[in-house]
Amino acid sequence: NSFDGGMVSGEKIEGRWGTYFAVPLNTIMNANEKNTIMTRTKATELITDEEGRVTGVKAVKYDGTEVEITANMGVILATGGYAYNREMVIETNDYWDKDDLKPDILSTNRPLSMGEGIIMAQQVGAATKGMDFTQLMPLGWVDTGHLAGGTGENVIYISPAGTSNAGKRYVDESAERDVLCQGAFDYGGEKGLFVEISNAGNRTKENNVEGRLYICTLKEAAEMLELDEETIKNTIIEYDDAVRTDTLHELDVPKSAATALIGNYNEDGSFNEEGLLAVRYLAPSTHHTMGGLVVDTSRRVLDKDGKPIEGLYAAGEVTAGFFAGNRLGGNAVAEIIVSGRIAGESVTKNK
Predict the structure, then answer these.
(1) Mind listing the pLDDT tens digit for each residue in 19-62?
(2) Do 85 and 172 reside in the same domain of the chain?
(3) Number of domains in the chain
(4) Catalytic residue among 177, 280, 299, 327
(5) Domain for residue 77, yes or no?
(6) What pTM did the predictor assign?
(7) Neighbour count for residue 71 (Cβ, 10 Å)
(8) Nearest to 313 by CA among 296, 299, 293
(9) Is residue 177 flagged as an active site residue?
(10) Beta strands in the chain (DSSP E)
(11) Residue 181: enclosing H or E segment and its boundaries?
(12) Phi and psi for 229 in degrees, rounded to 5?
């Protein structure tokens, strides 16, 4: 993934902060001089009038100060999903095997993704659906669960030491995320631990990150992984031959797409034992929750009878029904932009 940053008042703000925070914050603050962003403040409850219309939000600041915010037109919930709330994920799960989805699974999400927006809306009668579907990300760092980032289809995933499939491929690495995660649970180690190997390219050992990424030779990789060197070598060569001859579909574990080799080769075609490989330790992590609040096309939150809850709107991952059971990577960005704009227009027009 690349985070190029963004422009704020003619100044380039680099990286994730510029991409995800600086530009949206600048847009909000410049939209209306009365706009205020309350940091270190947690929303706790929706306020309703005698007729059940949502008229505001109760919140608590970091120092315990209670806050009540009045909404003349309505409240838009854009609080995200609940992927970090493993208790909530497991309680609602009806997709993953309970032996795979355990309380100690890590998450790509920040600790704020706890589902409070869904809970607050349910307290005023909101309906939910799809809560049994939580998307797992196969590319989580084993130590934190944070998103490791994809390196494309030109990788192989092998089972770690101590498994019956040690050193061998077990899945089509270009398959969907749920397929990759299930493969890791079935053929990986504890918590779905697996090993990703790719060609190091221009990377050197200076790029090593302890416990995560290692640039090394085949022999060094085998020693580090405590795997049989010949098994890994044969796995790589068999795979690379299939790439060269366009016979990936004929492999014992077929693959649908690949454009580059894993190994390094000498001019005579023999395997270059000194060539560098990139080795990463990865495991599935909770990533995106498909379930959430039921909304209509105007992003009005609906109750269990399918009727709009007056004054309450929602956008983004807090809602349900947009991605069915398994979201395609990248689509959430389009969804939050489109649904956010619709919700904003609807609340101003009292749709």
Answers:
(1) 888 998 999 899 999 899 999 999 999 999 999 999 999 999 99
(2) no
(3) 2
(4) 177
(5) yes
(6) 0.90
(7) 17
(8) 299
(9) yes
(10) 6-8, 11-13, 41-48, 54-61, 66-70, 75-77, 128-129, 134-141, 156-158, 194-199, 213-216, 277-289, 292-293, 300-302, 308-314
(11) helix 177-187
(12) -60, -45
